[in-house]
Amino acid sequence: MNRLQDELAPRIVPVVLANVTTPYPYHDSRLVRKADEPFDPIAAHPAFGNSFDWHSSVHAHWTAVHLLEHFADKAGGAPPQVDRLRAAVASNLAVQNITAEAAFLGAQPSYERPYGWAWALALAAVASTTRVETVHAMRAALHYLGSRIASRAERWLAMLPSPVRHGVHSNTAFAMGLMLDASRTLTFVDLEAAIAARAREWFGLDRGYPAAWERSAHDFLSPGLAEADLLRRVMPREEFGAWWSAFLARGGDDEESILFAAASVPNVSDGQVVHLHGLNLSRAAMLARIAHRLRGAIWLADHARALYRASVDEAYGAEYLSTHWLPTFAWDAARSIDALGAGSN
């Protein structure tokens, strides 16, 4: 059986390499105070001052580590850019650079909350388990960065009065899902417990989700599937199956729901409209994981594959507004769909 990861990996290696070595253009959202010195975002972000913006850089490095792991056992079969990607990761994620990023986050309490936080925790988690020796030297620094974010995330979850439910970076459920996976890997037990409790409180009683309200014109996440993907991490299998059936307005086998339909993307050069390619890929990943949790939901897996095919080519296309971030979402979808065949959770 051909794995999607095997097909995708050589195609996105040069794209990810270009991303983590490209400093400009760069978009940074930072609070500026009256007495602050002039700000150079590239200098301020020695690790993540590339890939268009901070969060895209963080998850580009997450993708890079996965790619290096993927090709670790393929002597002679790796793309020629793999060695350069390994060197770029080693340079960007040097201990002093991660320490500087942690200091920056300390001075900017809500910077990149929650999306960038979530991907930073995911990066720390994959660094803690990878066989890629290049990454071993920065494990401790990334763990420290993750621990700082975890403490801040616990306070944020305790303070937040309700979840953010729209389909872009501030979506709460998507970030919580990434944070929960990372917390379990990094043994951040307090954050894990906080996420599990909030997930049930905020989403556990949702019924008859109004799927027709999706999708907004620049979503790259499905709010409905994001909360389902979170709860399948929290609930036992049977409980989640019952929740899923009640969650969908027409029951758990509503194959005609807009949640499963691929979005058409009329303009990939528009930075907001192109989000819809990310929506197709993120839905593909979420549906694959939900299908696996439900067991036997073959039709969900079929939708996941169709959504993946609808947008995967844009992950290695010619438009930087697509390629600076879509490789991560394509890789996540490919891994999740491949896991259906491998029988892993």
Tell me about this structure.
It contains 16 helices and no strands. With 345 residues, it is mainly alpha-helical. It has 2 domains: 1-170, no CATH class; 204-345, no CATH class. Helix 11 packs parallel to helix 13 and helix 13 packs antiparallel against helix 14.
Please provide a brief summary of the model.
The protein folds into two domains: 1-170, no CATH class; 204-345, no CATH class. It has 16 helices and no strands.
Largest sheet: none
**Amount of helix:** 55-70%
Radius of gyration: 19 Å
Low-confidence stretches: none
What share of residues are in beta strands?
under 5%
Number of alpha- plus pi-helical segments: 16
Mean pLDDT: 93
Find the structural class using helix and strand composition: mainly alpha
Order of helical and strand elements: HHHHHHHHHHHHHHHH
Strand count: 0
Q: Shape from CA axes?
A: globular
